[in-house]
Amino acid sequence: MSADQALALGPLAGHRCRGKPVRCHHTDSPFGSPAQETAVGSADSPGGFVRRWSLKARLVVPVEGVPLSGAVVELEGERVTGLRSSGPASVDLGDVAVVPGLVNAHTHLDLSDFALPLAPGKSFADWIAAVIRHRTQAGSNPARAVVDGIKEIESTAATLLGDISSAADSRTALETSSLDAVVYREVIGVTKERAEASWRGFESWVKNAALSRRIVSGISPHAPYSTQTWLFEKAESNPACQIHIAETREEIDFIEKREGPIADLLQKLGFTDTSSLANSPNAIVQRFPNAIMVHVNHLVPLHFNSYRPAIVHCPATHAHFGRNRFPAKQWLDAGFRLALGTDSRASSANLNLGEHLENLMCGPDSLDPATVLRCATLNGARALGLHADHGSIRPGKLANLAVVPIGTREDLEAVISGLAHPASVLWRGKWRKSEGLANPA
Asked: Is residue 255 domain-shared with residue 183, that is, in the same domain?
């Protein structure tokens, strides 16, 4: 294999998938024939050229369409340009499935410095207090945590994420990563003074947003128990918005009755006046028909009337706190877009969304693997407002693909299982090189 050919193949050059070598259909030049790689003139590409090539796999799962055995994905530069049911390709990946890159719709990169999740505690308020202590302790380095979190997610099948930015601005680090993202600046404040300072911080943060094709800036009013209602009102006009809501019974007790462990915690922190906080979760969810609602463990579809906002479920966090099984099927059957996230390392052992999927196919109210994959890809992209470019394998969309070993199987259960450890990931048409991904043999 020539150096040019190895470069064209990226980390899968010489790679063997379950004993079956990758086959490369090249002439003496890596840009040899119509079915192979060619250089295409483009004013949008550095040097005026983009790469046109194709890859073939035992199974291609476009999500918007049925899985295709032995199909070929055609690519040009950063984009998918076609999908063929058969035929030759520049690269034959062998016994793998090719799926869209996953969408980690909810995480907190600046909390990525936990070796292990914080203990659940006797109450959710205990866990909140532990997070506050962590954020304020000497030696805390949220900027370093952001970088560590990005590196971890780059080693997974995810290519797009939604990050809640609080203690550190993740946008700069994400701009130099191999990830696309929506970054939601957190606004928070039980007191008027804290809320006003938080809003000023958000306004400054928005003004300092660099023009980017890859990173979108949004807002996240933290939660009804921690954020004055006028901050929610200010956030209404922002098209990119995430809200933590109805995560625990304690939260509902506090919002509706001003009692319970969260009320006790706020008292200990010196917040005696909570009159400017919401009195009902309904008042929040019905105000934001287009926002992403995170957790919703103690709401039901009827709370939303006719609204159908996107909701995000974080399976690992849900399991960490020992909560009752999340009724995913109930939400989907009611017409909601269910997306998935890892949440933070404060409540999840890792940021690998692919590891968190199989549990959704087990037990009562389980989902079929096709639905799980859609929740982890297209639903997440729709929730983040980026489905024109992400979430499925379709001409015109970005070439963000995960390559999953499946052996000789062609069932979606094998695909879901393999997403925990992808062989490699294509991001914007280039093989992503990172620890844990496939390297040249």
From this structure: yes
